[in-house]
Amino acid sequence: MFCTTTTTTTTTTLTMTNKKEEEATTTLLPTLEEAKTSLSKFEKESTEDIGSAWKEIILQTLSHSTLYNSFTKVSDATSSSRDVSKALELIRNALEWYYKEDREEEGVVVTPCSVLVDAFWLVGTLLDPSSSSSTLSKAQQTVKQSSYQSFTSLITNLLTTTSESIATKLIPLMQKTLEAPLLADTKLLSPSTGQSLMLKRLKKINTDLFYRQTKFNLLQEESEGYAKLLTFFTSLSGAQEEDCGNEREGHLMKVREIIGTFDLDPNRVLDLTLDVLELELQTLLSSTSASSIYETVSNAPQHATTILLLLQIMSILNTPSIPHLLGVKYTSYYTQQKPTPPSLYLLSSLLSLHSLLNLGELVPHLHPFNVWNILLPHYKTQQLDYKAAILKLGTISLNSKASEEDKKEETEEEMKGKEEMESILFENNQFVELVCVLLQLHAWNDLTQFLKTSCGEYNAETKKNRPGVKAMVSPEYLLRVLSGVYPDIALLICNHIEYTIDPIYTTMVLQKKDKAAVWTELCSSCPTTTTSNEQDATYYSLLPPSQIKENMTWEEMVQQIMPPLQAIIPAGSIQYMPLLYCKLCRVVSSFFATQQKQLTEDENDDDMSRSMDAYTWKFLTTFLVPSLSLFPSNPAICSELWSVLSLLPYHMRYKLYNQWRKPFLEKESLRATTTARSSRQRAPKKRSKYIKPLPIIESEVQTGLASRATLKRLSKDNVKDMGRQLSKYAHNNPLVVFTKILNQIESYDNLIIMMVETFRFVSVLGLDVISYCLLVSLGGGDAYD
What we know:
This protein is mainly α. The protein is about 65% helix and about 0% strand. The chain has 38 helices and no strands.
């Protein structure tokens, strides 16, 4: 009795367990409302994982009808018969509800149909009869086969019962995504294409795609296509310019025909075009007698049409490969220790100007790689040595022999290190050479973008190697560094400034017209007429239209020239181009004269000071007035500056003199810049952010030494001679000279008569500065406000 009860209990327990397994493996069929909710998410384009909810509904539906995810857990006695009609009805109704309105799905990657086909592929892979595992029992394999038949019947009935518009969307996706056996069982293969034939074709395509060599050995390759292309390119250089210009479209079609006929590799065609273009530029540079690259490329009648045609051919090829192909050329020249030809730099610059190359992508290919890691410390050392040399001016060494012995004690290693640094910085420096070519072509926007990319890479590398460093360099700072280390780059920047102001200078200064009328005409939108020679030069130019507007206003011109001026101010490079300084003074005086004429009689000088914009004031305070110190003993430049300042009211002139004097004069200003935070007692309450350039400080120190030596020799007998000397020193540094004279007069009253005699030889600007110095001296000295 006890055994019978135990057996009955065990049987009941197993029955309940099997029921729980069946309930666990049975998936509830989703409702149509749930399906519609998941499909409505496709209308929200910004939603991430837009098809996940719809895919979950499909898998849940297929699990209910086929048991694809649970047949291994079902006992052998479980029946696999499922009613797929409800699942079919749910999917069909959901799709017809979504596509009841015409929806444009061109370019859309994730659609309800694509998600449905992906789910079919997943279930078909799990139920594939050919992948039956040996671990399954016979009953489980029977369940799996029955589920596969239910799955194929669901797909077949869905394609036949759904609307034609939905079927046309589903069939191409299924043919691209589903496996070949499933396509055959669902009758999606054409009668002429069986499963075996499709697999053969698929193997052939995969072999051609992944295993067959497409880049043939050059010794065994058909070179006829490349030979024809090279012959065609070389024939262009010998053709007449008129013929090339008239048949440009025909030449482009010819290149396309050669590439298509011989199935040429676009990258190799692009490399061949680059070689021909570089050779053409090299021929142009060697055959010209022009003094600069800009004059050469701006008027090249024998090469312009050919080069422009080659540039147009390159635009139809794979332009993203250009930086890598040019990088190989730069690297090969550097590794072989050969000088990089100027034609390669010119080629890179022209490609950038014609928007075929982003010079920032060329930065990793230029050598030396660590140019800023060497250049920036070298610049800082150079500035420190310059400061030390200025501080030594006027000092007397009482132990000259010991100092000479210290200089001789430089070790051989230090000498070798200096030679290596100089060779890296000044010999075959591809980065600097490319900057020089860009400046010669006046491609200022391309240059700033190039430096911006280089600056970003240097900052990223610095942040990675030294996480605690917060100070990062800027493109403007890099330009100042290049101008300080390389004087040639500073002169090229000056040439670019002169090129920028030439249209305004020619119109306002050189032409014999009223300046106010000329300025009004210049700022108007009247079209300008060009001569036949200018039109021919424009036709034969390799450069795109200039980015500098001819009808610029004064504010636009100042905004364009201030960035390059800020680059050369610390180096004092304007001292080598006095003509440019005179041009700037004349243009500014023309502008101020125009403003004065526009003011009515009721308006006073304060109106003119209010009308001056911040760019003009910055231009005067940081460049035009302080740069006079860089032209020693030059009364002509002094008079040019006075032609500008004489048009300003006296209080604005005194503010300019005040800015010129800040923070101090001579070596005091140098000590203020080096120990600004420690010298609180000598500094004014409101310190200026302006840092006086070292060349200006050096000029002030030299003028101060010379004026002190002259004042020591001054007497009643040589007043005229010494007075002329003092006025000569005051041409470029009147503040230094007259401050020292007033300091001497405060101590020695008998100097007043001699100084009055001396002031007869002083320029008009010097006399105006004397009045300012008197006010400062009477007001208490270093009052900068």
